[in-house]
Amino acid sequence: MEKREFHVTAETGIHARPATLLVQAASKFSSEVSLQYQDKSVNLKSIMGVMSLGVGQNAEITITTDGEDEADAMNAVAETLKKEGLSD
Amino acid sequence: MTVNLKGIAASDGLVCGRAYRLVEPDLSFERRQVSNLDNELKRFHQALEAAVSDVETIKMRATKSLGTDGAQVFSTHITMLQDPDLIAAVERTIREDGVNAESAWANAVADFEETLEKMTDNPYMQERVTDLHDINKRVLAHLLQVALPDLALIDQPVIVVTHDLIPSDTVSVNPQFILGFVTDVGGRTSHSSILARSLNIPAVVGTQTATQAVKPGDQLVINGSQGTVIVDPDLATWQTAKQAMVDRQANLDHLATFRNHKTTTKDGRGVTLAANIGNASDLPSVLQNGAEAVGLMRTEFLYMNGDQLPTEDEQFAVYREVVKSLSPKTVVIRTLDIGGDKPLPYLHQHPEANPFLGERAIRQSLAHQQIFRSQLRALLRASAYGHLRIMFPMIATLDEFRQAKAIYDDERSKLTTKQVPLGDVKVGMMVEVPAAALLADRFAQEADFMSIGTNDLIGYTLAADRTNQDVAYLYQPYHPAVLRLINQVISAGHAAGIPVAMCGEMAGDPIAVPLLLGMGLDEFSMGAGTILKTRELIGQLTADDLGALAETALNSASTSQEVVTMVQAAVPGIVS
């Protein structure tokens, strides 16, 4: 299992566009990918779940990947966060 | 039986064709118990697949007209339709409660909608409820096996009959298959009308009853020049319209030969013909109509489409796309012209007794600087991608121009400090308040360019609201007083060595064009659909003769009618 924390820098937080791209990135892998914010954890392959967290600017989030391709999944998610200007 | 409908003439042309009713179908259903659960699950998955395939088609069309960024919302819809948690919830309800797929699906969507609506601290997410409504309807329509009409799914020539078109419909329109538009509501300046004119598609708006009177597949003849719609016409009427379509196409083909020509008079004087646009989705019409620049991009749609202010990044994405895809053509973007008659509900502006004389445009921007500054930053960032000019609307005093310019300079230097790449930007103003026209020589010392906004300039000069039928006769573009103001602005600009443009409807008016050429106007910016006609007209005119015509009209005409007579005498065969 891999676990990494991110600080959300984008003004708009994780809104629809980055949520879509994060879900698309996570869905390419067989590992379970989850996103934790405050005391809630959701499936990062579920856009409804991601959107229901309402992650705003300056949020601290934790991504967990668990499965055969967990390392690759983590890298793909981290790269999407960075590319979308969501996190450093 | 033949039925005649009367509406408002919104976009010229006579066409005939079959009706496509763009009206939402009845999607009501009952919750019921089902015995064959496997079959219910199968129905659900088939409906989901069909919905995804619809959205894929719509996304493809939107990508063509808007680019990948603009089509992003449809990727979100697809991701929603493929959401594993949502699908699992629906499957569970079908299995455990033994209910039909319609109610299981609608419940699952409603649960999530509730979650979003509770996010009162995040209005952006609350707004995503509209996306949910969209996918909800799409799946239900497939489950209920009713057609969910959608502009993007039209694949044969039809006349679209609808209540009203909304700005987001623009992205789905495939002009190749749309012969005409008929709407229940709207006027000549409503979104549907502007869209139809920019695409050169005949339209009749404000018929009030078209969606009730017309059935899918009805034969229609619509006359966009007279504002009439005939349902189930007799053969002779149908054939007349058919012939008019052939003639119209021949004329469009003829005009298309001017697409890649430069705009010059018979004696070789060159001017620029530019397009007025309101959205990135207007870009194809700019290119198809051979515009040499964009002389006015309105930015109101960015603010009026949503329930909250657009973010700086959202604006940046749109401005960048426009500037970049038109480079090296110049693009003039006007800062927000809102307030008064075009209020933004979410800003809670107080009602004004005289909106046209109230806190609108630059007055609103200077009073609410955070909105103005965010727009200027987005524009400045986009300037690195092409040739951008920024224009302030409704300037009445030098003080206003200086204040707006100082805010611009301030934002520019902040971005420069942050080493954000910026392009060379010219900063100019619209001349639409008579006070600014009269003082144009002073403004010309400080502005990089001036653009005459005739729609408002005429209204303010004759003190008449052209949307008020009782005084609409006072909307007189050729009134000698208006011509003198325009001439004063052009002369003042040239004396100071800056270019002068015009971005009102008058710039494409065949009676006005010879006069404006005679006064030396540099750039004519108009609805894209008028550009080719105007280029053909200018090619038939001799600039040398027009100086004298303009001078006579300015010095010795007393009425609008006298001006028209002078132009018609000087340019035989010209029609208004």
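qc> Chain B touches chain A through 24 residues (CB under 8 Å).
qc> done
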